């Protein structure tokens, strides 16, 4: 099967490409920078002979059409995942307009299935209600979350028309071999660097990028049924559980204070305003706090493609080892994992 992939140089897209190639599929990637794409594929030792690169952008109608032409299936994983207010315009352009162009082009090309990578945040706020395949699209106040909700409406519109669109909802993803590092791995790194001493109460879903990548590979050939909406394997963790698990795997104390999430929202709003004129990233993000305030667990009956999430402690440990091996954490910051034989770097 020839699978056209957008966003293949991102964290989840890259791991999904690797899972598809392992499954015997050929992949065509829409990329802006072929050299960056080759470096990303090298992180996971993906056979370059199994991947074709098409230069273009998801926000360009011609590029989207070239990418999906003749493909048996499409994985639309391109998107800007960030709570950084400096990227608001980029998020609207890529997450909304890009989804509109790619799904329309994929539908015209006759690809089946067309897998749209949404996000659990597209279904928020959902206070007190478990998330499932029939959850309504949310109307969140954060820009990133709102753009994912807008993209979700586009994908569901194609589903209502009978198009073979399948939607996946990844949780917050951690894991190794991150070409970014992306938002979640950066947040974990910031916690270990002591940049996040205050956390909002509440929680959010956490999963391993390798599990959701495997889900995407399965969806290419899975029989379709119901609403064709599937959740990436993960677990809903409170912020206390998240920090506790990070303490356990690193052996570090990681002092932290926990405050009501809604009480911290004004701080997130102020940080977002300051961020627009501040050159360095401010870890206090409105969207992250807002997610903790309104996230809900996933219904245990919701589809995860038959996959069971790996233990969160294993995912965190693998992530910390990888960050340490890449020189993104010091020996002290990595804690006991710096002494692990898989930590390839020492200081």
Output the structural class. alpha/beta
Uncertain residue ranges: 343-347
Give me the oligomer status: single chain
C-alpha geometry: globular
CATH class of the domain at 2-179 and 206-235: Alpha Beta
Q: CATH H-level name of the domain at 2-179 and 206-235... which superfamily?
A: NAD(P)-binding Rossmann-like Domain
Biggest pleated sheet: 7 strands, parallel
Strand order of the largest sheet: 3-2-1-4-5-6-10
Q: Which range best describes the helical content: under 10%, 10-25%, 25-40%, 40-55%, 55-70% or over 70%?
A: 40-55%
What would your notes on this structure say?
With 347 residues, the protein is α/β, with parallel strands linked by helices. The chain has a domain at 2-179 and 206-235: NAD(P)-binding Rossmann-like Domain (Rossmann fold, 3-Layer(aba) Sandwich). It is built from twelve helices and twelve strands. The chain has helices at residues 11-22, 34-43, 61-68, 88-109, 143-160, 183-192, 209-219, 239-250, 261-275, 286-294, 312-325, 331-334; strands spanning 2-6, 26-31, 51-55, 73-76, 114-117, 165-169, 172-174, 198-200, 203-208, 229-231, 235-238, 257-259. It has a seven-stranded parallel sheet with strand order 3-2-1-4-5-6-10, sandwiched between helices. A three-stranded mixed sheet has the order 7-9-11. Strands 8-12 form a two-stranded parallel ribbon. Helix 4 runs parallel beside helix 5 and helix 8 crosses helix 11 (312-325). The longest helix has 22 residues, at 88-109. It starts with a strand and ends in a 13-residue tail after the last helix. Mean pLDDT is 92; it is low at 343-347.
């Amino acid at each position: 099967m020839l699978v056209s992939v957008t966003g293949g140089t991102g964290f989840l897209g890259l791991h999904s490409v690797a899972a598809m190639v392992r499954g015997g599929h050929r992949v065509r990637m829409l990329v802006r920078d072929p050299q960056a794409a080759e470096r990303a594929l090298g992180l996971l030792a993906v056979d370059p002979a199994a991947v074709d690169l098409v230069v273009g952008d998801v926000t360009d109608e011609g590029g989207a059409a070239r990418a999906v032409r003749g493909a048996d299936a499409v994985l639309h994983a391109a998107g800007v995942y960030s709570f950084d207010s400096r990227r608001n315009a980029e998020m609207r352009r890529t997450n909304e307009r890009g989804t509109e162009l790619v799904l329309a082009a994929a539908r015209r090309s006759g690809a089946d299935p067309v897998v749209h990578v949404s996000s659990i945040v597209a279904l928020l706020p959902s206070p007190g209600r478990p998330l499932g395949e029939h959850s309504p699209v949310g109307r969140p106040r954060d820009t990133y979350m709102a753009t994912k909700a807008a993209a979700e409406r586009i994908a569901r519109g194609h589903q209502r028309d009978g198009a073979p669109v399948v939607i996946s909802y990844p949780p917050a993803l951690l894991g190794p071999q991150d070409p970014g590092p992306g938002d979640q791995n950066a947040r974990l790194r910031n916690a270990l660097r002591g940049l996040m001493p205050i956390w909002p109460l509440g929680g959010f879903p956490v999963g391993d990028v390798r599990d959701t990548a495997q889900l995407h590979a399965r969806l290419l050939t899975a029989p379709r049924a119901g609403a064709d909406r599937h959740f990436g394997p993960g677990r809903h963790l409170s912020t206390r559980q998240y920090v506790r698990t990070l303490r356990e795997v690193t052996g570090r104390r990681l002092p932290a204070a926990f405050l009501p999430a809604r009480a911290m929202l004004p701080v997130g709003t102020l940080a977002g305003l300051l961020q627009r004129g501040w050159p360095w990233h401010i870890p206090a993000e409105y969207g992250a706090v807002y997610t903790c305030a309104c996230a809900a667990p996933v219904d245990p009956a919701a589809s995860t493609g038959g996959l069971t999430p790996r233990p969160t402690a294993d995912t965190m440990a693998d992530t910390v080892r990888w960050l340490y091996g890449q020189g993104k954490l010091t020996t002290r910051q990595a804690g006991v994992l710096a002494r692990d034989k898989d930590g390839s770097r020492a200081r």
